Amino acid sequence: MAENTDLRKVLKGHANKWVALSADSSKVVGVADNPKEALKQARINKEQSPILTKVPKLSGALIL
Amino acid sequence: MIVSLKYNYRKFDSKPSDAFPRRFCVSRPVIPIQLIKGQDRVKCFAMIDSGADYCIFQASLGEIIGLTVESGKLDHFGGISGQKQLTAYFHNIQIEVGGHEFDCWAGFSRDIEALPCGLLGQLGFFNLFDILFDYNKGRIELKLKNNT
Question: ipTM score here?
Fold first, then answer.
């Protein structure tokens, strides 16, 4: 299974949301204000191994 | 046996600015991991961050693996802005990286909920792996240390 590592398209339009991605990161399987709900949606969508990430409100440089 | 794990940098959307007018994309050393507590586990992205003193994740992820976040041991930490002291609560969990599971004394914080992912820092991650970042090739290699 080829893994998608360019997340620009797949995360577009989900700013400030928690997103559950498919195991290969190719599609969104859940979107919510919190990771628990995003995960719940992923399970409803029968995704076996969802990956959670938060999409930042503003897309810019990140210096931690 | 040498355990070597290879990953690609992940690309994220970025907004151009006066300083970087052609920056529409940023590449970051972000890898998929699992946070594990007992029978509960959650898969998430985490950024390998040599500037982080320890591993820290959003509190909301900790709750998914059954942690009562504020029952953990308290630590205060600061970020680059230095303006505010932030709060984390530490718990013994396991992290899974490339099919290998490790014990980790990890922080969970409500103050980093806005971050895109948790941070894999010096204690709990860099002490486990020799890490090669090749930004130009977009590659990351993790080699498990012999004493791990």
Answer: 0.94
Q: What are phi and psi of A11, to 5 degrees?
A: -95, -5
Q: What share of chain B is helix, strand, coil (3-state, %, to 5)?
A: 10, 50, 40
Tally of domains within chain B: 1
Q: The domain spanning residue B77 has which CATH number?
A: 2.40.70.10
Q: Is A32 on the interface with B (CB under 8 A)?
A: no
Q: Is-contact B54 B122, C-beta < 8 A?
A: yes
Q: pLDDT by residue (tens digit) across B1-12?
A: 889 999 999 999
Domain residues for the domain of B53 are 29-144
Q: With 70 as the cut, is the pLDDT of residue B148 above it?
A: no
Within-domain flag for B5: no
Q: Which residues of A touch B115 (CB under 8 A)?
A: 54, 56, 64
CA distance B51 to B122: 8
| Cβ atoms B12, A58 nearer than 8 A | no
Greatest CA span in chain B, whole angstroms?
49
Q: Phi/psi at B3 (nearest 5 deg)?
A: -95, 120
Which of B11, B23, B49 minimises the CB distance to A5?
B11
